[in-house]
Amino acid sequence: xxxxxxxxxxxxxxxxxxxxxxxxxxxxxxxxxxxxxxxxxxxxxxxxxxxxxxxxxxxxxxxxxxxxxxxxxxxxxxxxxxxxxxxxxxxxxxxxxxxxxxxxxxxxxxxxxxxxxxxxxxxxxxxxxxxxxxxxxxxxxxxxxxxxxxxxxxxxxxxxxxxxxxxxxxxxxxxxxxxxxxxxxxxxxxxxxxxxxxxxxxxxxxxxxxxxxxxxxxxxxxxxxxxxxxxxxxxxxxxxxxxxxxxxxxxxxxxxxxxxxxxxxxxxxxxxxxxxxxxxxxxxxxxxxxxxxxxxxxxxxxxxxxxxxxxxxxxxxxxxxxxxxxxxxxxxxxxxxxxxxxxxxxxxxxxxxxxxxxxxxxxxxxxxxxxxxxxxxxxxxxxxxxxxxxxxxxxxxxxxxxxxxxxxxxxxxxxxxxxxxxxxxxxxxxxxxxxxxxxxxxxxxxxxxxxxxxxxxxxxxxxxxxxxxxxxxxxxxxxxxxxxxxxxxx
Length: 490
Description:
Elements: H1 16-34, H2 41-64, E1 73-74, E2 81-83, E3 98-104, E4 121-123, E5 126-127, H3 128-143, E6 149-153, H4 158-164, E7 175-179, E8 183-184, E9 186-187, E10 205-206, H5 213-219, H6 222-228, E11 233-238, H7 248-257, E12 261-267, E13 277-281, E14 284-288, H8 298-302, E15 309-318, H9 319-327, E16 336-342, E17 345-351, E18 365-368, H10 380-387, E19 391-394, E20 397-400, E21 411-414, H11 421-427, E22 437-443, E23 446-448, E24 453-462, E25 468-470, E26 475-483
Parallel strand pairs: 2-18, 3-6, 3-11, 6-7, 12-18, 21-22, 22-24, 23-25, 24-26
Antiparallel strand pairs: 1-13, 4-5, 8-10, 9-17, 11-15, 12-15, 13-14, 16-17, 19-20
Helix pairs in contact: 1-2
């Protein structure tokens, strides 16, 4: 940890004078950082220029108090949100114009795993990455096309991912990787960069969110390579969303409407009230995130009645439009200040979201898709869902059991004993059958045996220091289990 800035300086009151001073100090600090670079100096300097632009805009917005005017927010117009059911039937004729990109910058630390999150095993011995490869490879074989798979890594995941993708070399798929930027964290009090040297520890740096996609794609040369191959459309999704598969109807719709940007939306449930939503603001389509909402309107934002849909982060984007906008430096999106702690210091990392760029693309609109296209795995509760008999695997894609068609997925809440994948696997070595489950809550030291069936609403609460074991073959239906049990009648 650097000692140079650890003494608290006066926190800036964001007026024009303070903004200019802070910007000047940051520029000098970044120049000093650049002097310590020993390899690929041009790339580093480009990244620091981009970071400085972001930082300066952050200061200016703080000084001006730029916020959305709530009264100007409108629901999207009819032509700005289209229902998936209204799309025309599709063909495979446009597949050669497509490339697929997975956002692969995240680590599995929140689930207690080491390395990229994409290598966590999620189904039948397959990792997130395995499933993505199988899906795209199936398309290439079935339709005799060449759809490439791109992975946008961060400095946290790049080295490990490079080793992992070697196993796909014999497959009918081209897997390409590139890195998003590496920006310096800044001290919240002094607004100076945490690192003093290019080689300072990784905790001094951060990947600046997936809004960095556009710049990183161009700088890496991968965008030009795709255009040379005749690719026109990039399908972007989070690496942990198992519902984000290539959809020919959406691809054809995008090309038929000459839209430069499509965002997949899906109806909100009580679990999604914080998700970003599309709005019409001053006559243009924009993404509204909860971080932009004034405190007095947060509950209104969470309302399922007013804001019916949320952003899945499944995005379809025109490649030529990306290049033109980046070359014109025309993509400026809302900044998300993310506060972190390093040692005893409060630091900020300035991030952006790829969905917020929708307002810069011509003909941009949302498509309301079935819930099946949004199946993220953020926690072990999600992991239980996707590993269960609720789904079956078909060419790398998870398919919902037909008997659940028309029903929402069960709500599953697992307690802290199940937070890490290791604890989850230890306590639930065999997946229970949940086809008839509506709600499951488990807290405390609970273990589930083999061949267990869960139906209706099942709540299992184990007291601290106690243990509950659900024996093999148990059938639990609409029950609350509490106390300290090793044998359960069923």
